[in-house]
Amino acid sequence: MLENIRIVLVNTTHPGNIGAVARAMKNMGLSDLCLVAPKLFPHEEAVARASGATDILEAAHQVDCLEQAIADCDLVVGTSARGRHIPWPLLSPRELGGVATSLQPGKRLAVVFGREDRGLTNEELHLCHHHVHIPTNPEFSSLNVAAAVQVIAYELRVALVEQVTTQPPQWGAQWDIDLANSDELERMFAHWEKTLVATEFLDPENPRQLMARLRRLFLRALPDKVEVNVMRGFLRTVDEKLAASQSAQSKGGQADV
Amino acid sequence: MLENIRIVLVNTTHPGNIGAVARAMKNMGLSDLCLVAPKLFPHEEAVARASGATDILEAAHQVDCLEQAIADCDLVVGTSARGRHIPWPLLSPRELGGVATSLQPGKRLAVVFGREDRGLTNEELHLCHHHVHIPTNPEFSSLNVAAAVQVIAYELRVALVEQVTTQPPQWGAQWDIDLANSDELERMFAHWEKTLVATEFLDPENPRQLMARLRRLFLRALPDKVEVNVMRGFLRTVDEKLAASQSAQSKGGQADV
């Protein structure tokens, strides 16, 4: 199961941290590392701090944006401090372990870690199904990124490998249909946005939190592939009706002249 | 309770590790650090890696041997790889958390961490009541000392401070908006059905499982009241566009006659 877990680091500044993350991952039996636009990589400091986990560094993928890093993942969890603008389904690291045990075989889990100085942006957090918060001293809450990876990877190892009891499985464990992956979900959200704008329900000049609310609603349901197809089929029907309406209105307008 | 926990580092070689330990301790709410014959301390690298936890470094005690570090402690736990010569009572980090919660008030717990390259000696381990082993990949089992402190301190914080439930996270438990009640959900589903029929996406003669799929998707997300209102607002917009389209088409039709 551990081989289906990807650690994603977004815009890491210090290469030493990347090395320390590789070491923590290998210590816990993880191997899939994806770097989103790291500042300095490869770098000798990364190798030094990896302390022998150079195979993880050498196999690491580099991509330009978070969307690419998670496109083939089925469940995406972003690390977050508390108190974001819109609350999102929040897990503890231990609950994340429980969720990982309930994934269908072969499903890929991504856990996303942000920049050293300011974590993940709201936009990046909204790409995630769940957020995970590592409990900390509220007066000194900023964990080193490798320390955060260490805690999460430890909980995942304990949940998936060690014989420790965890929570009962949640949604998706014994499901009849494959869960939709991130790419399919993103295309559904893009379709939603297009149709919402076309119906004038969403004003691009003043979008407020509408798409964030929709994302949160659907992501926490972990939609399966058929459900995504149903949703997109409905949106397509609305698109066609709107197109027919506009063409009829323009005809009607001409007739009035 | 956390103030009665001492972290003891034996013969640490790299001052950067001492700084990283101080940071991990302060992140988790620990403050009592004792250094047994560190190689280089104080040191600027320790300050740099402490990342603001300099109060822990400044208050750290330095002693010459482990016996001095633990003399006033009531329970001593040494970190250990498996497979020592003489088996010793062995805890997992989680079990250590349980032990910590069962200590009488005011009793002092020391957790002892060894050298970067070879851990604690057998003599040092025999000064300990229990050993604690952090589960690792057996093929790459040597944790960085600050990573080991991070895991132990995390488990101690979770056991002593955080209200950890064994239940899976309950969506909406601490939510900003009231969850929608059954009546509101039923009216949303009725609206969905009406609009789906109006758009001809749902054929009342052959409804298949469409409404069941929609119900299941939304119900398991436990929508809140605003999310239900957003959904109904969108459906209402679609209704209005359809009505306008039909009226325009019928006007268009009359003009053609």
Percent range for β-strand residues of chain A: 5-15%
CATH architecture of the largest domain in chain A: 3-Layer(aba) Sandwich
CATH superfamily assignment of the largest domain in chain A? Answer: SPOUT methyltransferase, trefoil knot domain
Secondary structural class of chain A: alpha/beta
What is the mean pLDDT of chain A? Answer: 89
Q: Gyration radius of chain A, to the nearest Å?
A: 21 Å
Enzyme class (chains A, B): transferase
Subunit structure (chains A, B): Homodimer.
Keywords (chains A, B): Cytoplasm, Methyltransferase, S-adenosyl-L-methionine, Transferase, tRNA processing
GO molecular function, one term (chains A, B): RNA binding
Short key terms for the protein model shown above:
homodimer, 2 domains, Helicase, Ruva Protein, domain 3, alpha/beta, Alpha/beta knot, seven-stranded parallel β-sheet, 257 residues
